[in-house]
Amino acid sequence: MVRSLWSAATGMNAQQTNVDTIANNLANVNSAGYKAQKAQFKSLLYQTLQSTTTTANGEPKPTTSQVGLGVRTSSINNIYTQGSLLESQSDTSFAIEGDGFFAVRGDDGTTFYTRNGDFTWAIGTNGGMTLTNQDGLPVLNSAGRAITLNRTYIANRITISQEGEVCYPDGDNNPQPIGVKIGVYQFSNAGGLERYGDTLLMATEASGNAINEDTNNNVRKSRILQGYLEGSNVSVADEMVNLIVAQRAYEMNSKAITTSDSMMETANSLKR
Q: How far is CA 230 from the centre of its chain?
């Protein structure tokens, strides 16, 4: 009976993690570039009550007797399906259609990756314009450097092609590339990226090094869509169903604890 108490307790802890993950998904349903997460579980150790034995005829029994000792969270996976494309009124809103990520440079020089293309042109102290995210982190070009233009360019006339080329209209008002390209990067295992916060991700050994789409011809190229943002890929209906399932599983584990406690109380009340 003590085993059942601890097994049910691990089940409650696991379902609490499940609910925490679902709640975070629902909280970020309107966060641009957010990717949903899903908790995965696996069983703990098994205790052998009876090893392989023989029948009365001397033949080995086909199975053993083992009882499980609970469950634990094995991983929380990132789901990198494409989010909905949401039209934006901003000329510095960009959505990626494909498997790529934008890159931004942190204050400490760390490179972060994101699907959130809500950018802006920030005026620097040197008079130049730098493309940054909403936290002021510079967006990197295909060479890994900040995208900075001089003040002769008018921000609302700058366009970005689907290949990421920064363009500016010539005398005939035809957009022409100016030799700068927004960097788009992929990973061999995007699920191995580490979440940093603010929809930023960091490369790890599990994800592998970033693959520059501009210099690697072995990957399917992504498209950059100006005037759009990628919405989160959270399905509210699915998350609500998962929440109900997690709640019921939590209640059942709680019931198992109270049942085991009642059984122990009955055993303790026995008298000779």
A: 14
**93-152 tens-digit pLDDT:** 999 999 999 999 999 999 999 999 999 999 877 778 999 999 999 999 999 999 999 888
Token output for 82: 């494409």
What string of DSSP letters covers 17-80? HHHHHHHHHHHTTTSTT---EEEEEEE--EEEEE---B-TTSPBPS--EEEE--EEEEEEEE--
Write out the two tokens for 47. Answer: 């205790």
- Burial track 88-125 (b if 16+ CB lie within 10 A, e otherwise): beebbbbbbeebbbbbbbeeeeebbbbbbbbbbbbeee
- What are the pLDDT digits (tens) for 156-168? 899 999 999 999 9
The total of other beta-carbon atoms located within 10 Å of residue 235's CB is 15
The answer to whether residues 74 and 104 touch, using CB atoms and an 8 Å cutoff, is no
C-alpha dist (Å) from residue 105 to 24, 137, 165, 224: 26, 6, 19, 19
Q: Given the structure tokens 């409650």, which residue do they identify? A: 12
Reported pTM = 0.84
Contacts of 22 (CB under 8 A, 6+ apart): 239, 242, 243, 246
How many Å separate Cα 119 from the centre of its chain?
A: 20
- What is d(CA 45, CA 67) in angstroms, rounded to the nearest whole number? 9
Q: Which two tokens stand for residue 30?
A: 């309107």
Contact 82, 107 (CB under 8 A): no
Q: Residue 72 corresponds to which amino acid?
A: R
Closest CA to 239 of 42, 73, 31, 19: 19
